Amino acid sequence: MTAAGLLAAIPSPDEGVVALGPLRLHAYGLLIALGVIVAVKMTMVRWGCKGGAPSDILDGALVVVIAGVVGARIYHVLTDHDRFAGRWLDALAVWRGGLSIWGAVIGGAVAVAVLARRKHARALAVADCVVPGLFFAQAIGRWGNWFNQELFGRPTDLPWALEITVTKRPVGYEAFTTFHPTFLYESLYCLLGGVALLWIDRHRRLRRGQLTALYVVIYTFGRFFFENLRVDTAPEVLGLRFNAWVSLVLFVGGLGWLGWLGRHGEDADAPLFRTVPDRSGPRGSGPSADPVA
Predict the structure, then answer these.
(1) What tens digit of pLDDT does each residue of 241-264 get?
(2) Taking the domains of the chain in order of start, what are their residue ranges?
(3) Per residue in 2-16, pLDDT tens?
(4) What is the pTM of this model?
């Protein structure tokens, strides 16, 4: 590679730690936390705009976030268990990376569904408020992969190639210096995805849940290509990376769900609760007076 090419490449941090005075904080965790804050704030604003109380979202946010993180880590460990064989305690070291978006979505979705049911809220109404912020959270969180020098793509000499230190390069790629910055590709894609969902929600009349289905369709479409560009070791099925298959299946399923909701889904202006909460009475005066998660 030429010297000019190296100067044009994106450098990687020497370490994935941010020093704040005497504190040394893991950048990966900080970016995940920042993404969560953005997603929760956006969800609160959107829920309020639809007629709910923003505090309703905040009341259940911690449970949903914990469920998402636990689900993200479990999914990563189960689908990449060979890396943890003989050292299972490393599965707890989430600051080193390894939080799967699929696991996060599954864990978070289960928590939202359970809490929404307990509070008599429409789970899809909550989900439609969540997904634009989720896209922005992913856009922020992907920069944690840059700090950890992980999940990059195939070698390339493009001006925006990513420099990777030799100790971080996969077996067989030690001679290459720069790689596709898939973290950047996915971050920009998620940013555009979030903007697209906000625009569609504002300018198109959708059925309840269709915005969530669009999130699934848009994200899995891009993730399929990003996944097949990566060179890190991953389980494969029929010559295709496992998570690429997951993307493909969810993309098709998301399209089908989008169409089904268009014919059978509730109107987006339908009540947010199965029974409209009476917020004028004292807290706890009835089941519908409880906040939605």
Answers:
(1) 988 999 999 999 999 999 999 999
(2) 26-83+94-276
(3) 444 445 689 988 877
(4) 0.84
DSSP states along the chain: --HHHHHHSBPPPSSSEEEETTEEEEHHHHHHHHHHHHHHHHHHHHHHHTTS-HHHHHHHHHHHHHHHHHHHHHHHHHHTGGGGTT-GGGGG-GGGS---HHHHHHHHHHHHHHHHHHTTB-HHHHHHHHHHHHHHHHHHHTHHHHHHT-S-BSB---TT-EE--GGGSPTT-TT--EE--HHHHHHHHHHHHHHHHHHHHHHS--BTTHHHHHHHHHHHHHHHHHHHHB-S---EETTEEHHHHHHHHHHHHHHHHHHHHHHHPPBTTS-SBSS---TTS-TTSSGGGSPP-
What is the average pLDDT score of the chain? 85
